[in-house]
Design a protein that fits this description.
This protein has a domain of 236 residues: Transferase(Phosphotransferase), domain 1, CATH 1.10.510. The termini are far apart. It has 12 helices and 11 strands. The strands form 3 sheets. The chain has a 6-stranded mixed sheet with strand order 1-5-6-4-3-2. Strands 7-9-10 form a 3-stranded antiparallel sheet, covered by helices on one side. It is α+β, with helices and mostly antiparallel strands and 392 residues long. It comes from Rhizophagus irregularis. This is Kinase-like protein.
Length: 392
């Protein structure tokens, strides 16, 4: 059956140009802090079945149960390996409201429970996309998260904004990431596709929010090497080598978002997203600095994508620096930013013919290099022998 896909909040869209590496989530404790909607339905709560963690969730969560018959025009948007996402109209006393419905694409409810738990923990921050509650599809018997509807950001439009507007958006993003880290969580999937925006609002720089909690996990959890999902261009080199996600790897992902704010295009979009690009990133290759980017901005971006995760700043430090540019200009920064010298790539940017939008990287790596172990190569001291050059 064909599905309409006019508006997609997905990192699997062609516009996002992303690749995933296999993964799953681990469970954890939570303290609900859920935003309210005054006229939510107060009907009987639903029940998740078959798991002690699920029973605990029901007892401790203050997330609202929303009867499925309150939704109409349910429309498939996209599916990735860990979730299926729909758009729907929620019938409220105050009128209809567009929302996102997200369910696990497995028969287990625990992955969805974990996402609800971690998402709910972070809702004290206004920079996190709103989570209203959960429901159950009576046809599939799958439980679904109910979230605010927003679309993924178009950074090509962001660079049309003035410099201060762009800084304010970055400040919102890093503030949301601070809240995630303050909850002892790691986002693990921070990328442009999960920077969401409400359309039709005048105050544009205040309408950006972090979403995409599918892979969010506690700081102390450890995934197996081949259980790491990620968006290739945004993945820290240590994660590509098989180490677990950390708060520092989130900061690396933020640095790539910073770079997109100066270019309006995906990093390495003239390259094939393949094994060779993985190796190049692990060897230290980063997106080319856009000409005339302010030096203070470049310096922070380079710190955030440092090869050594221990040398990357914390989210709170990055927020303080960006906040100082916005709210407390020093003389040097004031002169540099007020000059508005940042120039962007306005010329058409070509894409590599073998660049693809969403694909499991492991499959690509197996076809690229059947003899060598992927993680053995990435874990080696010197990757030069494995990197193809023009001379090769």
């Amino acid at each position: 059956m064909a599905h309409s896909n006019d508006k997609v909040v997905s990192s699997s869209t062609k516009e996002s140009g992303v690749i995933f590496i296999n993964g799953n989530k681990s469970s954890g404790l939570f303290k609900p802090a859920v935003k309210s909607l005054d006229d939510r339905d107060d009907g009987t709560h639903g029940r998740f079945e078959g798991s002690r963690n699920v029973d605990t969730f029901i007892l401790e969560s203050n997330l609202k149960w929303i009867p499925y018959d309150k939704f109409k025009n349910v429309e498939f948007l996209y599916e990735v390996r860990f979730a299926i996402t729909y758009k729907a109209i929620w019938s409220l006393k105050s009128g209809d409201k567009e929302v996102i419905l997200k369910s696990s694409n497995s028969n287990l409810d625990e992955p969805l429970i974990n996402e609800l738990i971690y998402h709910a923990n972070c809702l004290e921050s206004t920079e996190i996309i709103n989570l209203y509650g959960y429901t159950k599809n009576p046809d599939t018997l799958n439980y679904m998260a109910v979230m605010e509807y927003a679309i993924n950001s178009n950074f090509a439009k962001v660079i049309e904004m003035n410099w201060k507007q762009r800084l304010c958006i970055l400040y919102k993003i890093i503030s949301g990431l601070c809240e995630i880290h303050n909850q002892n969580l790691i986002h693990c999937l921070l990328c442009d596709a999960y920077i969401l925006i409400y359309e039709g609002e005048e105050d544009k720089e205040n309408n950006f929010f972090i979403g995409g909690f599918e892979l969010c996990q506690p700081v102390k959890s450890f995934l197996k090497r081949d259980d790491n999902y990620g968006v290739l261009q945004f993945m820290a080199p240590e994660v590509l080598r098989g180490k677990p996600h950390t708060s520092a790897s989130d900061i690396y992902s933020f640095s790539i978002i910073m770079w997109e704010f100066t270019s309006g295009v995906l990093p390495f979009n003239d390259r094939e997203y393949d094994f060779q690009l993985n190796l190049s990133i692990c060897e230290g290759e980063r997106p080319e600095i856009i000409e005339n980017t302010p030096q203070c901005y470049t310096d922070l971006m380079k710190r955030c994508w440092n090869e050594d995760p221990l040398k990357r700043p914390s989210a709170s430090e990055v927020r303080g620096i960006i906040g100082s540019w916005i709210f407390h200009y020093s003389d040097n920064i004031n002169d540099e930013l007020k000059s508005n010298i940042m120039e962007f790539k306005n010329e058409p940017v070509g894409s590599h013919p073998q660049t693809f939008s969403s694909k499991v990287v492991d499959e690509t790596l197996e076809s690229e290099d059947s003899e060598a172990s992927y993680y053995t190569i990435l874990g080696s001291e010197n990757l030069d022998d494995f990197i193809k050059t023009d001379e090769n």
